[in-house]
Write a structure and sequence with these properties.
This protein is mostly beta strands. The chain contains two helices and 55 strands. The strands form 14 sheets. Strands 19, 20, 21, 24, 25, 26, 27, 28 and 29 form a nine-stranded mixed sheet that branches. A six-stranded mixed sheet has the order 1-3-10-9-5-7, with no helix packed on it. It has a five-stranded mixed β-barrel with strand order 31-32-33-35-34. It starts with a helix and ends with a strand.
Length: 738
């Protein structure tokens, strides 16, 4: 049987000069399997202007062809006088007339004595079907009568499917006589006889075009009671006094500050150790008062109930809503919200949102769930993506261990906090480098926890600070691209493991060195390279991406490195990078480094340590800090890390000055992933005392604070660090304000 390429060569001349057609290719990246019978393309798209197209067929047996609907009036077969019976590899043509209407489709049937196949010709239309309610909700008087909803459409009512769903407790039937005229849907409503209760309904109009694609639009109706009352408006402050189920006809008016489509609205909660509810972000919205002083999180019942458009001014009927109050920080959530509760919605723009610009230390609990711009910020870890995690444990491989990543942010005052990015965020790992300069970050202020960074004994309690921020677009991260345009400068920086003569040297500048107190005697080195999920992306090893696997695709192999560029060259850019599609750099690249040892020295009864040396001579500043990215590469490594400083650098002495302590998460265990194991390195900000300034040699020590190691299955921590416990770094930086 002839191969596809040779068939195309034979058919090339007949195809030239014909109609320019676009075929719908298979999207899974696999080669089309050669069959003994069948058309090479199952669907062909023809332009609205019409013309001639050719259809190659692969066969090694006789077959016949015919139009499924020969009286269609616009598509005819052209076999150049050869009839409709063929044998072997061949082709035939079709002729499409001009389509000045909507898209249409016709099928061509092919069959042998025991097999059949179909080619569909989809012709574009000069007119694109349009169906959209300009206002998503209308309010109707209790007296009944005619009501209208503005509708943008080029379709006739008889071509539309109508659906009326009555969402209040009555039996329905109070809406009738739908019609479309002069850009409006016109309808009739019966009077509402109830002297107290409002009633609600939604009307959905839908149209299925010739390609079997459906478009639809919905308008929501709220009818007043018999007294023509719609309830009364209450303030956001009054809502805070209605904790529990609201049983009054009251409503609020505010601005929507969330974006339903970006995948980063709200947290997708872990529902088990290897399961995540990915509908959470699509059921989450945020509304703030018109002056921006207060806000609420909204949780809708279903994804379809979340009809809230960004910047729109909406009125929400609260009857039936559950108002939930949370403390530390004080915040309020409106739960069980449905689309029928939206009394009105008027489109707006970014200019309608009050600009609230603050430093992190100026935030209060009243800012939670409002739109905030945090001023003079930077992303101090200069490598990786918005979600630097091993994607083998995330959504792209259906592993469902990681739901979000908290990215470290530092501001000019020296305060630090986390910026949250979901694994459902569309642009989280698109190959772009992070901006390394300073600027502003805008988003919705939230309070969330993260057990994979900090384990506090039970699920959903991991304290990562009082406030975090959720961006809704990449443009919300309005930082300067280049580090030179930043309020800070570096004393020393380790962006990858530059190993020289048994110590690590800085990769930025030449200030100091990094060493270990107990290197492995067999190797004689200070450490080894380990893998690091800092590849920028895109990632994924799925061959057929779809809605549930938006990061799928043939994205293996290095393209973008990990954001470390020196002298115009991407560092850590080995051809093996991301060779599994999971966003990992190989251990050979030393993008991260570690050391194996018996962390707790039983002879000295103290911890071994990493020792960072650098000079602070000639530096004058009011803010000095250190940023590290750390992870236990062995489950059972030191859980609690202590940071101290001295000028002598002798780990066996007791006169070290304490700075801080923090938890370091264990690497994930595939077979039994626990809530406190992390598929990425934890980014940590450590404020440094100003008394470190003006010294020739400062030593910062990273040691185990105690003998506690990674957690058991019950959430408790072992009392003994394992023999080969590894603490790995993927970044160390010491910076000061200019």
């Amino acid at each position: 049987m002839k191969q596809i390429k040779s068939l195309y060569r034979r058919l090339l001349l007949p195809l030239l000069g014909g109609l320019a057609l676009t075929a719908c290719e298979k999207d899974n990246g696999e080669e089309t399997r050669v069959s003994e019978f069948g058309p090479y393309k199952k669907e062909i798209i023809a332009p609205w202007k019409g013309g001639t197209g050719s259809i190659p067929v692969l066969a090694n047996q006789p077959y016949d062809i015919e139009l499924i609907n020969p009286d269609n009036g616009w598509l005819t077969l052209d076999t150049e006088g050869r009839g409709t019976h063929f044998t072997g590899d061949d082709y035939f043509k079709f002729q499409a007339t001009t389509n000045d209407g909507f898209p249409r489709m016709e099928g061509i049937r092919l069959w042998t004595h025991n097999r059949a196949d179909t080619v569909y010709i989809k012709q574009e239309g000069f007119i694109t079907p349009k169906l959209d309610f300009s206002t998503r909700s209308i309010m109707v008087l209790g007296d009944g009568g005619q009501a209208t909803a503005q509708l943008s459409t080029n379709l006739e009512l008889e071509d539309l499917r109508q659906s009326i769903v009555y969402t209040s407790a009555d039996e329905g039937g109070w809406i009738s006589d739908l019609d479309i005229s002069n850009g409006f849907l016109i309808l009739q409503t019966d009077p509402n006889a109830d002297p107290e209760a409002l009633r609600n309904a939604r009307i959905t109009l839908s149209y299925r075009d010739g390609w079997n694609r459906t478009i639809s639009s919905t308008v929501y109706l709220t009818q007043a009671n018999a007294k023509n009352e719609f309830g009364h408006e209450i303030s956001f402050s009054e809502v805070r006094d209605l904790v529990g189920i609201v049983n009054k006809d009251v409503y609020i008016e505010g601005r929507i500050i969330s974006d339903i489509g970006n995948g980063n609205n709200g947290e997708n909660m872990m529902t088990g150790q290897t399961s995540i509810d990915y509908t959470e972000t699509y059921r989450t919205a945020y509304i703030q008062s018109l002056d921006g002083s207060q806000g609420f999180m909204i949780k809708t019942v279903t994804e379809d109930d979340n009809i809230f458009e960004r910047y729109s001014k909406v009125r929400i009927l609260l009857k039936g809503v559950t108002v939930e109050a949370e403390s530390n920080p004080e915040r309020y959530i409106l739960k069980k919200v449905t689309s029928a509760m939206v009394m009105s919605s008027v489109s707006g723009s970014a200019a309608d949102i009050p600009q609230k610009v603050k430093r992190y230390n100026e935030l209060t609990d009243m800012d939670v769930y409002t739109w905030v711009t945090l001023a003079d910020c930077e992303l101090p870890v200069r490598k990786g993506s918005l979600t630097p995690i091993n994607e083998g444990y995330a959504r792209s491989t259906n592993a469902n261990r990681e739901t979000k990543y908290p990215m470290l942010v530092r501001d000019k005052n020296g305060d630090s906090f986390y910026m949250l990015t979901n694994t459902t965020c569309k642009y989280r790992r698109d190959g772009s480098m992070l901006p390394y300069g300073s600027g502003n970050i805008s988003g919705v202020l939230v309070h969330e926890t993260h057990d994979r960074f900090v384990w506090m004994g039970s699920k959903d309690m991991g304290d990562i600070g009082r406030y975090q921020i959720r961006h809704l677009t990449r443009e919300d991260i309005a930082l300067e691209k280049d580090f030179e345009n930043s309020f800070s400068a570096l004393l020393t920086e380790y962006r990858y493991g530059k190993l020289e003569s048994h110590i690590f040297r800085p990769t930025t500048g030449d200030n100091g060195y990094l060493t270990f107190t107990h290197p492995d005697e067999k190797s004689g080195d200070a450490g080894w390279g380990v893998s690091d999920p800092s590849y920028l992306g895109p990632i994924g090893n799925e061959s057929n991406p779809d809605k549930e696997k938006p990061w799928g695709g043939t994205n293996k192999g290095n393209v973008n490195g990990n954001g470390i560029v020196e002298n115009g060259k991407q560092m850590c850019s080995d051809p093996g990078t991301n060779n599994d599609g999971k966003g990992n750099l190989t251990s050979a690249e030393f993008s991260a480094w570690t050391n194996k040892c018996q962390w707790w020295n039983t002879e000295t009864d103290r911890s071994e340590a990493w020792l960072l040396h650098f000079s602070t001579q000639g530096i004058s500043t009011d803010v000095l800090s250190m940023q590290v990215a750390m992870q236990n590469r062995s489950i059972g490594g030191p859980r609690y890390i202590r940071v101290d400083w001295s000028e002598h650098g002798d780990n066996n002495r007791d006169d070290w000055n304490p700075i801080t302590e923090f938890q370091v998460p264990d690497i994930v265990n595939w077979n039994y992933t626990l809530y406190w194991q992390c598929a990425g390195y934890k980014y940590i900000n450590v404020p440094l005392p100003l008394e470190l300034l003006g010294k020739d040699d400062v030593c910062i020590r990273f040691s185990a604070a105690n003998k506690k190691a990674g957690g058991k299955e019950d959430g408790e921590f072992d009392d003994q660090i394992i023999t080969t416990g590894e603490i790995a770094f993927s970044y160390i930086g010491v910076r000061y304000n200019k």
